[in-house]
Specification:
Elements (H helix, E strand, L loop, with lengths): L1 E4 L43 E5 L13 H15 L8 E2 L17 E2 L6 E5 L4 E5 L4 H8 L4 E3 L10 H6 L7 H4 L6 E7 L5 E4 L6 H6 L9 E11 L3 E9 L2 H14 L1 E2 L2 E2 L2 E8 L2 E10 L14 H7 L2 E5 H5 L18 H6 L7 H14 L1 H8 L5 E11 H14 L5 E6 L18 E11 L7 H12 L3 E2 L9 H7 L2 H11 L8 H5 L4
Amino acid sequence: MVVGYDPPPGGGTSRCGTSPGGRKGSQSPQGGTPRGRNGSESPGGGTNVNIVSNSVPGATIHEAASPHQAGVQRLVRSYAAVPPGATVRLAKKSSNLFRARDATAAPGLDVSGLTGVLRVDVHARTADVAGMCTYEDLVAATLPLGLSPLVVPQLKTITLGGAVTGLGIESASFRNGLPHESVLELDVLTGTGDIITATPDNEHAALFSSFPNSYGTLGYATRLRIELEPVAPYVALRHVRFHDLDELTATVAAVTAARTFDGARVDYLDGVVFSAAESYLTMGMLTEETGPTSDYTGQQIYYRSLRQRSTDRLSIGDYLWRWDTDWFWCSGAFGAQHPVIRRVWPKRLRRSSVYSKIIAMDARYRVADRIEERHGRPPRERVVQDVEVPVERTAEFLRWFLATVPIDPIWLCPVRLRGERTWDLYPMTPDRTYVNVGFWSSVAQQPGQPGATNRLIEQQVTAMDGHKSLYSDSYYPPEEFAARYGGARYDAVKAQYDPTSRLLDLYAKAVRKK
C-alpha cells in the first residue's frame, strides 16, 4: 500500500501511539501486519492520509508535478540569485546548531516548499520526505500506520535533511545506528546548482557516502527516501541505577550485544549520569499491552523520574519526544522547572524550539555575559557537545570529565553501525560499540583562552579513539580536522560537486565559524 500524506494546516501533530506494529523483519522489534487504529488493513486516523496506489514489489514510483517540485524550483532559483562569493545559507526560522557564525547580507535559500511528508509506502516500509521535513511531522504521519523512522532524534524540530547532513542519534541507535544509515536515496542540490539523486550504488555513490556530516558543504538534501520499522502503541520502561561507572558501561556493552536485559527484550537504550556514584540506564520495550501511562508534558519532568521510579510506561509518541519538553534538563536554566513558573508557562511553549530561540537571543544581546560582568565574574564558555567514545573507554572518559569539567547531568546513548559500511566524514568501526556522551551547559572562561575547555575535551576524545559531532563549537587545527573528518576523500567529492567552491568547506563552517 502506498499512501500520500497531506500534513495538517500549520504543521500540527497528533498524539500518536495507538497503532500496533507491522510485519516481521530482521530490524524489527516485533512482528504483525501494519494496521490502523481500528486494526484494519487501512491507515488509521490522526493524520490526513489518502491511498494513492497499490505498490508493486520493485516498482519505481514517479510523481507528477507537485508542490514539492515547485518548492525545489524555488530553491534552485534562490541559489542562482546568491551573489558570487557570498556565503550560502538556508533561510529557516529555527536551528539546532550551537556554533556562532559570521553575519552575511546575502539572501538565504528559499526552503519554504521543502517541508512535509511526500509519501509513505506501508508495505515497503519507506517514506519519501522533503529535506526540511521535521521529525515531528514525519512521526505524526507514520505512527498512526504503526511505523516509525528507525532513529528519531530527540528534538521535534530536527529535520530529516539536517539529521543526515549533520548526524543524529537516539535510544534506538544501539540496534539501528545513525539516521543516515536508513537512507535509501536522496536528492541533493549541489554546488553546481544541479539537482542529482544519490544512492549507495549509482554514479553519485561517492556523494552518498560523504554527505553525512558534511553540514551543507557538499549540497542540500531536497528529498530523502528512508526506511521505517514497525512499532507498538506503548513503551514499557525500566530504570536501573548503578553506583559504579565500570558496571554501568559493562551493562551497556552486554545489552547492546544481546538486546536483552534480565531476560527481557530491549528495543530502546539510553542513560543519564548524575555523578560517578549515581547513574541510570533506561531500557525500553515496545508493547501492545494497555495500562496507565505517564505524562511528562505537564507538571512532571521526565529526567527526574529516573530517580523517582524504577518502571514507567509511555505512549510511543510521548516516548519519542520525552526529552523535548524540557530540552533534556536544560529548561531549568530558564526557570521552566520551577513549579510556579511551570504552571503559568503555556504547555505549547514548553518545547526545545522555544528554548533554542531564547538561547539565540541571549547570544545576540550578550545577556548572560553582561550579568557575569556586573558581578565581576569572567564570561562563560559554552560547552555544548556530543561525543562518541568506544564503550570500553567510556567509564574512563566519564571519570575524567566529571573530575575536570563542572557539568552534570550527562546523557549516554549507545550506538553501533548497522552493517559493514563505513562513512567517509565520520569514520566509526563496524561491529564496535560506542557510547554517545552528551553534555550541554557552560563553564567559566579561562582568561585569554577562549574555547580552552572545548579544546581540552576534543583532545581527550581523540586520545580515547573517539569522535565529536560538529553541530557546536570546534577548535581543531586544520591538519587534525582533516585527519578526523574525511581529508582527501572529502576534498575529492567537494571538487566534483562544488568545483567553484560556492559552498563553504567543512573546516570553514565547523571551526572558523563562517
